[in-house]
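User: Can you predict the 3D structure for this chain?
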Amino acid sequence: MPGTRQLRQPIRTRNQINTAHLTLSLDDNDAAAEAIDYQVERQLDELYGDAVAGDRMLRKFMSRVSKNFSGAASIKTAPLKARATAKAKLTRQFPRKEVEQLKDIARATLEFKSFEDMYAARDYIRDQPEFQSFTAAAQRGALKNRYRPAIRGGMGPTDQGYRDIKFFLWMDIGGGRGHIVELQLNVTRTLKAKSIGHPFYDIIRIGGDLWDPAAPNSDLLVPRETVKKVGPKLVHACNECIRREIQAAAARKVLELVKNNFYVARTVTNSRGEQYVRRYELKDRSVMLRFNNPAQIEAGRALLTCSSAAYRHYKALGLKYRFTGRPDEVWGRV
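Assistant: Here is the predicted structure, written as structure tokens:
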């Protein structure tokens, strides 16, 4: 059925998994766990193969939207989600996600200058076959509006204050198969806030929704891929917060945390025998952020502070502009 993805290699229960290919020295639990991991990897191989075709179809879809709807300020494409990040997402919540539930391997964003343009594009996309392919029940989960509050049927903003309109779209990739992709709609000033606020959240969410740096076992293991992706963005975000005086004191603490943990200082010695830092090089490995003493805990709290500060800052700026759309959506101002 269009809109319902079923991988050709479904995961079975543990007692149905063939462990004959595994090392005989493994005990039963280890063997079953490794078998499941092996099956997950096979499923990811299949999913990423489909995602290549799905991403190509998504780009064609956005070109069609841009051609038929002139309100898009820009199209922001993205590489396929890093495989390690996708795999980590499977176990971020309980019960764990299945591979076929991953819908954002191929993703992109349409940026708009105004709310009027964004909502007009939303209405246009809702009428397209890539969305209409879903059943009526599935469509409710395939359109998520964080600009609409929960009491009006939306999702409301994240705890950090981020908002967007998100579509999941069914891309026909041939052979009777389809791939679900993610398309976000947003306005320029919210995307600016995201560029500053989201790197902090990328680290915080490793600890879960209730992460507290002062709680026991609050250390965060940041995967290598996240270090490489988020490290430079965090430096930029901290400097932006300092420059714009958005919780500047907290941003300085986070900047120190990032430099000390994500980067290696390369020093040189001058003619007087004095050493100084010539440059910082981003580490090419996983990093453990520890929060075991007062200074480290303060740095963790600064992460939490900076995570939402940018969104609050840009929301305050956005309130200077009135959204003049339909009466039931005036609430949608940033």
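The first strand starts at residue 72 and ends at 77. The chain is about 45% helix and 15% strand.
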